[in-house]
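Q: What structure does this chain adopt?
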Amino acid sequence: MVEAGKLRHKIDIQKFTTAKDSYGEDIKTWASYHKTYSKIEPLRGKEYFDTQQIVPEVDNKITIRYKSGIAPTMRIVWGSRTYEIRSVTNLDERNIMLEFLAVENPTS
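A:
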């Protein structure tokens, strides 16, 4: 369990949705699903070569209080940073805390 004082990063968990524009056409966009405080811990960084350039990538462990319905298809936004959720774990299966393994890609 994480102490409340360690949950100091205010994040926005977003879900990919389809909405209608003013012409009635579908547009795909990210919408806020849940705003909460979290603990963000960088785990490791790496670089890979993609489209003739080196792209940095940072793996992170993000912990929040339990919230049902969060899936790896969602993303996390903290300030100007965006994290792609790779996995969601209900710690000890007690519905108290959730832990995400997420990747920050500075080019996103």
